[in-house]
Amino acid sequence: MSDQFKRNILITGGAGFIGSHLVRHMVTKYPDYRIINFDKLTYAGNLENLRDIEHLPNYQFVRGDITDLNQLREVFNTYAVDGVMHCAAESHVDRSISDPLIFVHTNVMGTASMLQAAKESWKENMSDKRFLHISTDEVYGSLGEEGLFEETTAYDPRSPYSASKAGSDHLVMAFGHTYNLPVVVSNCSNNYGPYQFPEKLIPLFIRNVLTGKPLPVYGKGENVRDWLFVGDHVMALDLVFHKGASGETYNIGGHNEWKNLDLVHLMCDLVDQKTGKAQGTSRNLITYVKDRAGHDLRYAIDAGKIQRELGWVPSLTFEEGLSKTIDWYLNNEEWLEHVTSGAYLQYYEDQYQNR
Ligand code: NAD
Ligand code: TYD
Fold first, then answer.
1. If you measure from the C-alpha of residue 221 to the centroid of ligand 2, how many angstroms do you get, rounded to a whole number?
2. Dihedral, 264, 269, 275, 277 alpha carbons, nearest 10
3. Is the CB of 191 under 6 A from ligand 1?
4. Ligand nearest to the CA of 68
5. To the nearest whole number, what is the mean pLDDT of the chain?
């Protein structure tokens, strides 16, 4: 394929939550890069997330599976891929508890296949290539009341999800060490923002408040997460991809710890304010339910390294980010309705079946 683009970047999982924000950022900020969005479109992949940019000449969607090495070889070859931003994964802890094997298959075998395809394709010259693996702070396990995850914290994953991500991180580092593949890993805290599938805490609870359904708080709601607006994560990924040192890990986090119950209260109050309901209306929907098995108590990131070395800091406060997020869900009820009913699955057939 003739190449009028400066770079050809393969983003995996680009129709999911973080991946779709990353694709939008990369295609619009770098019109001289071709962005190839490679996604299997599982339940979590939704091309409606990218409706606004899918017409751009430097955007290409390919439906495919990261565990299919032959298909990956073909994509690397066809598009002369010279950079990878690898987001595709099974990503929800609760699903990993009920169905762990698909997490091992996708996250471990899928990442190994991505690395193998890159290694084969780049073997003549690795120097101008880059493989960014997008991972999670959950690989570090769970904190007590004190302390922060640093890049040097020993891995101690405790759910099938985090264990499968830890396995994938180790493979990435091993390919860097053994074959000199120019890899870099980012480990980020909990993201929130527009286009997040309503199975994760924030979008699920916004949807349930809007539809008057119970808000199922696990245990006593005392678990702590460090929340980061997805747009700030994407800015960090852009920096790590372009400027991060090969073989390094960068932690990304919001310096923004919230106990689940405090977060849910804030979210309920903001929705009440924005929808003109009496204060306390949405809090009444809170229901305490059985705790998640093996529920990690606390995650919190020390993001000092990426700040010092790459100059990254989050741009939004949590109150700003949460308010923006709630506004987006209030203004995009059709999107929510489509993901809830499953209608989004039809979008691929309608848009792409004849292309
Ligand atoms: P998501 O579940 O919203 O999206 C995952 C995407 O991967 C979907 O589009 C899905 O179709 C695709 N996918 C799944 N299996 C595939 C396969 N076999 N082949 C090709 N595509 C496949 O996930 P997300 O929340 O956007 O997370 C993206 C990445 O960021 C994941 O690697 C996750 O571990 C990591 N991460 C997520 C968070 C968070 O809070 N959501 C935080 C830190 C890191
Ligand atoms: P989640 O969004 O699933 O992210 P993760 O488990 O990867 O941190 O959950 C965030 C926190 O919210 C976590 O402590 C579990 C809790 N939670 C609930 O209390 N109720 C829910 O319905 C969900 C989905 C999560």
1. 10
2. 120
3. yes
4. 1
5. 96
pLDDT band at 343 (very low <50, low <70, confident <90, very high): confident
Q: Which of 222, 213, 223, 149 lies closest to 186, judged by CA?
A: 149
- Residue 85 tokens, joined: 């931003």
pLDDT at 218 over 70: yes
Query: What is the 3-state secondary structure of the chain?
Result: CCCCCCEEEEEECCCCHHHHHHHHHHHHHCCCEEEEEEECCCCCCCHHHHCCCCCCCCEEEEECCCCCHHHHHHHHHHCCCCEEEECCCCCCHHHHHHCHHHHHHHHHHHHHHHHHHHHHHCCCCCCCCEEEEEEEHHHHCCECCCCCECCCCCCCCCCHHHHHHHHHHHHHHHHHHHHCCCEEEEEECEEECCCCCCCCHHHHHHHHHHHCCCEEEECCCCCEEEEEEHHHHHHHHHHHHHHCCCCCEEEECCCCEEEHHHHHHHHHHHHHHHHCCCCCCCHHHEEEECCCCCCCCECCECCHHHHHHHCCCCCCCHHHHHHHHHHHHHHCHHHHHHHHHCCCHHHHHHHHCCC
* Ligand 1: centre distance to CA 123 (Å): 28
pTM above 0.90, yes or no: yes
Does the CB atom of residue 85 touch ligand 1 within 6 A?
A: no
CA distance 136 to 154: 14
Would you state the pLDDT for residue 355?
A: 55
pLDDT of residue 354: 58
Please give the structure tokens belonging to residue 159: 């759910």
Ligand 1 centre to CA of 281 (Å) is 34
Torsions phi, psi for 11 (to 5 deg)? -105, 120
pLDDT exceeds 90 at position 70: yes
**List 138, 226, 238, 257, catalytic entry:** 138
Enter the CATH code of domain 7-193+228-254+297-315.
3.40.50.720
Pocket of ligand 2 (CB under 6 A): 93, 190, 200-201, 204, 216-218, 223, 225, 260, 292
Residue 137 annotated to the active site:
yes
Residue 310 has pLDDT above 60, yes or no: yes
